[in-house]
Amino acid sequence: MRDPFQNPFPSDSARQAIWEMLVSRDIDAFLAADWSMVEGDFVEEGFIGIDGRKEVNPDKWRLAFPSLAAYREEWLRQARDFAGQSFAEDPRTAIFTTTTLEDIEIEGETALVRKKFDGGITKADGTRDVLQWQTLYYCRRHQGRWKISGFTGYLPNPMG
Fold first, then answer.
1. Where on the tree of life does the source sit, at the highest rank (predicted)?
2. What is the pTM of this model?
3. Is the peptide bond before 158 cis (omega within 30 degrees of 0)?
4. 148: domain range?
5. Residue 1 has pLDDT above 90, yes or no
C-alpha cells in the first residue's frame, strides 16, 4: 500500500520537484487558502486552463481560465469555500489519500503530468464530498525550476 504523503520519485530530481509542487505544496497552500505559497509555481505568460467540467466529450470543455489571474481567483474562491466547511476527518489526510500523481512524462524541458483524485472527505454533518476527477498539467522548466504553464482539468476519473 502506498504512503500518500511519500514522494514516489526519491531518486529522480525532476519528477520529485514536480510531485512536491503539484501535490504537497498545492494541498498545503489550498488548505491554508494562501496563494502566495504557490504563486511562484506558475508561468504567467501564456498560461491557459481548460475546465473539462467532468465531461468525457471535449466539445463540452471550456476555456475557463484564459489567464493565470482568472485561475488564481477561482482557486482562491474554492480554497476559501473549503476553509469555511467543517469536516469529520482531517482534511489534509483525506486530500492526500485521494490524490495520486505517479505518471510524469518528461521530454527535454517540458512535462505532461497526470494527477488523479479518487475518494472523498466526510463532512461534520456526516455527508461525504466525493473527490473524483483528474487533471493533465503542462509543466516546463522556467527560470531554473519546474513550473505549471497550463492544464486541462476537472476531467472525469476514470475517463469514459
1. Bacteria
2. 0.96
3. yes
4. 13-156
5. no
How many domains are contained in the chain? Answer: 1
Whether 87 is covered by a domain: the verdict is yes
Q: How far apart are CA 84 and CA 96, in angstroms?
A: 19
Count Cβ neighbours within 10 Å for each residue of 83-99 and write b for 16 or more, e otherwise: eeeeeeeebeebbbbbb
How far apart CA 51 and CA 83 sit, in angstroms, is 22
CA-CA distances (angstroms) from residue 156 to 8, 19, 46?
Answer: 24, 21, 25
Does residue 42 belong to any structural domain of this protein? Answer: yes
For residue range 100-114, what is the model confidence (pLDDT) as tens digits? 999 999 999 999 999
Instruction: Write the secondary structure of 86-116 as one string of H (helix), E (strand) and C (coil).
Output: CECCCHHHHHHHHEEEEEEEEECCEEEEEEE
Is residue 2, in this structure, part of any structural domain at all?
Answer: no
> Nine-digit cell at 142?
522556467
How far apart are alpha carbons 93 and 4 in whole angstroms? 8
